[in-house]
Structure formats: C-alpha cells, structure tokens
Amino acid sequence: MHAFIQAVILGVLTGGVYALMASGQTLIFGIMKVINLGQAAFVVLAAYLTFSLFTLTGMDPFVSILITTPILFVIGAAIQWALLRPLRPGDATELSLLVTFAVALGLEGLLAITYNTTFRSIQPGYENFSWTILGYQVNMVRLFAFLLSIAMLGLLYLLLKHTKFGRAIRATVQNPMSAQLLGVNSKMVAAFGFGLGAATAAAAGAVFGLVSPFNPGSHYDLISRLLTIVVLGGLGSIGGSIVAALVMGVGSAVIAALVSPIWSDFSFFVMLLVVLLFRPRGLFGARVRGAL
Hints:
Layout: H1 2-32, H2 39-57, H3 61-84, H4 92-115, E1 130-133, E2 136-139, H5 140-162, H6 164-174, H7 176-181, H8 186-211, H9 219-233, H10 238-258, H11 264-278, H12 285-288
Antiparallel strand pairs: 1-2
C-alpha cells in the first residue's frame, strides 16, 4: 500500500506538468482545428533556453519562465502567421500536420547544431531536495512544478473566461463565421492563439528540463504522450486534457511502481485504447467539445 500511495503522489505531480504541456496543444486545436505536431518541440526548445539561462547567468529555472514565455509566444505567433495562415482552408487540416511536423524537425536540427545531441539536464542546488510527509517522499522540484502548472492553467482559464481576447477565442472556437460577423478578426485570433499555445510550452519546458534529461530528439516521445492525453480528454477540451493528464500520470506511475517501469510508457496507449472503445470522442469530447 505504501508503494501504491507513493506512486499516486508522483503520478499526480507528473500529471499536472503533462496537463500544462497538453493545454497548449488543446487550445491550438480548439481555435484552428490544427493538430500541432511541433508542440513537444516547443517544450524542448524552452528546456534548452532555460538550460542556457541557467548555465550562463545562474538564473533560476522557474524565474527564467518570465523570459522564455514571451519568446515562445512570439515564435509561435510568427510560425502561424508565416506558415499556417497561407494554407488554403480546404487543405489546412491535412497540410498543417506536415507543416507543424516540419517545424518540429527544423527546431530539432537547429538545437542539434547549437547544442549537439548530448543529453542535458538542469541541475539547481535544490534538485534532489524532498520533504517527508506522513512517511511519503515529496520531491521539491516536482511539487513546485505541479504548483506552477496549476497557476498557469488558472491564468489560462481566467484569460479565456474573463477577457475580451478570451471571448474572441471562444467565439471563434464555437462558430467562426458568426464570430467574424460580430467583428472578431479570426486571423489575428488564430495567430495569438497559436502563440499562446506555444507560450504554455515555456513553463512546461523549464519543468521538463528539471525532471528529465533531454536532447534535441526528446520531442518524439513527448509528442506521443501529449497526443494521447489530448485525444483521451476529448479534442478541444482543456478540462478534459487536464483530467486525462492526471489519469495518465497516475496510471503510468502506479504501473511503474507495482508492475515494471518497462510497461509504464506502454500503459499510456493501453488506457487510451480502453477509453476510446467505450467513448470514441474521449472522456469529455461529446459534452464539452468546442467549449474549451
């Protein structure tokens, strides 16, 4: 029982970080109906930017988010405006997969040239510090990463629900034609929405670099996990992706602790298959699709 509860604690903390990563993916799909295969590459890029700031200036990884977030936002908005906006509406869904995958490969190549393919990690002085609470270990970095994810997701919720820009995003998601008739600039919303999705990768990347070694090719494994979470939660549902991330995080940690770490990664796809057999649209797809 002790091992099970310890695994659940680790799974919840990890799931919160996955939720932050997947929220950007879900937001982009909700606005543009684009499955962004470059989202994981944005996370890895943010991890390298955080690594550089830490090694060159000694800046704390959590503080560096204040710098990397606007950088990723600008990169994301520029990519949407330059590469995705010109696609013809009839072909946009299919071609966007190729374009975003090309972006991921391009970022991977640039990072490999700049940093080479050696695995890196961000190791502040408190990296291995943990608390013992009621006999269970709680790693400081993972706890702070979880709290950061909750804060970022909370800010994203407030942005979407209580700002003019958020209302424009939700209107575009629910009915693009009506939104345009009401004066919403759908092209600008798409660019800013894509940038916002990329910006969530800034915080996620800092955390990813703290809890896991990474190299330019790390995005391959990561994108498979993010797509699994997004599909499981229901395409277009941020709430669904959060629940799915927690389910996946806990399930993977429990299997690693009680069965074998070898089966941990495979459990993502087993859980996805089981859920989709009974709910083809994901956990929340039928009820909240398009509502964010």
